[in-house]
Amino acid sequence: MTTPLSPRTPGHVATRLLGLCDFLAAMDLQTRAAEALKAGGDGHAVFLLEHPPVITLGANRRLNQVLAAPQGVPVIQTDRGGGATAHEPGQLVVYPVVHLRRLGLGVKAFVTRILEAGAALLAELGIPAEPRLDPLGLWVADRKIASMGIHVSRFVTTHGLAINLVNDLALFAAMVPCGLPGVRMTSAALELGHPVDLDAAARRMAELVPTALAVTGNS
Asked: What does the pLDDT read at residue 79?
């Protein structure tokens, strides 16, 4: 059962559509935005992008089950929650860097609202995805279409949501995704039987995330 979206303390968010962006470069952008918020800045940020092929590891090392990383694909340790996952072109990645206390949100409410924004995007594409907190992510029946992992420091969030749209999912075979044996990964293209417009989806998420957090966005 999910919590309906409702108004929260207003604020400002800058949404940035970055296209294809190296994982470490995206982490640097998040870190700088997070440090600005911790220092008293009032501008929340949401970065929307794709990554070149990369495997990332979560803080829960028990869930980091990489079988065999393909040659040339980096494996990067992170401080987010969860276990090993894959990023590759065609996957829409959403990184909200926001101050939870200033938005009047707890961690669970924040996670729920970001998942609901992703579910709203998929619903508009014709895919009935269900937000779940356990196992965390967006699910189409028994198939996982989006993964989420965050880090919170001094009320400021980093990392976020990765929605499989038109990626071929091949990289997930190199691991046990999120430490879930036997999990079936899926994508919007696989569910619908045809490609979707990733750029249009990113622009729509740039509207949905600020609405979910009840802040005013600009792209």
From this structure: 97
Q: What is the pLDDT of residue 12?
A: 76
Alpha carbon distances (Å) from 97 to 5, 31, 154, 164, 208:
19, 9, 12, 21, 15
pLDDT at site 42: 77
Are 34 and 158 spatial neighbours (Cβ–Cβ below 8 Å)? yes
**Per-residue exposure over 6-23, b if at least 16 CB sit within 10 Å of its own CB, e if not:** eebeebebbbbebeebeb
Q: Give the three-state DSSP class for 138.
A: strand
Q: Which residues contact 207 (CB under 8 A, 6 or more apart)?
A: 217
Place of tokens 């911790």: 38
Q: Is 178 a catalytic residue?
A: yes
- Catalytic one among 178, 198, 212, 215? 178
CA distance 64 to 76: 11
Tell which residue, 92, 116, 99, 111, has the closest CA to residue 12: 99
Those residues of the chain that have pLDDT short of 70 are 1-11, 215-219
Give the model's pLDDT for residue 41: 86
Q: Counting beta carbons within 10 angstroms of the beta carbon of residue 68, is it exposed (0 to 12), middle (13 to 18) or buried (19 or more)?
A: exposed
Q: Rounded to an integer, what distance in angstroms lies between the CA atom of residue 44 and that of residue 54? A: 26
DSSP symbol at 179:
G
For residue 218, the model assigns a pLDDT of: 46
pLDDT of residue 215: 57
